[in-house]
Design goal:
Elements: H1 3-14, H2 24-35, E1 43-46, E2 49-52, H3 53-69, H4 76-82, E3 95-97, E4 104-105, H5 106-120
Antiparallel strand pairs: 1-2, 1-3, 3-4
Helix pairs in contact: 4-5
Length: 122
């Protein structure tokens, strides 16, 4: 193969591996999503057990830090999908219940929080 074809092939194969760090706006939104649990009376279900908001926040922060280190999260949507939606061990979806609100999947809860954040930010 010609050198040009090899370089093109190498670039195409490397493209899925090249992840940039989240930009400042994405970092801010992810921090706000994780922080949305602060001070809440919501409970977070993980692998069949309910945890308070502080434990949930700490767990999600650890998962986010891991994903950052592995360069596997660039956007708030990826954070929700890869860290805040389901257990990476069991595959079971996370759930959230807050007083006065119906229990829901964590993916839906964080998705709604992200939408609300973006509506408030011009």
């Amino acid at each position: 193969m010609s050198r040009r074809i090899l370089l093109t092939l190498a670039a195409v194969l490397a493209a899925p591996l090249a992840h940039a760090a989240p930009d400042p706006q994405a970092q801010r939104e992810i921090a706000q999503l994780i922080g949305s649990l602060d001070g809440s009376t919501c409970q977070f279900q993980r692998n069949g057990s309910w945890h308070d908001a502080a434990a949930a926040r700490a767990h999600l922060q650890r998962k986010y830090d891991y994903l950052l280190k592995k360069k596997l999260v660039d956007t708030p949507e990826q954070f929700i999908e890869r860290a805040a939606s389901q257990s990476s061990m069991s595959g079971k979806p996370y759930r959230i219940r807050c007083p006065g609100q119906p229990e829901q999947t964590a993916a839906a809860w964080f998705g709604a929080r992200l939408q609300a954040l973006r509506q408030r930010t011009p």
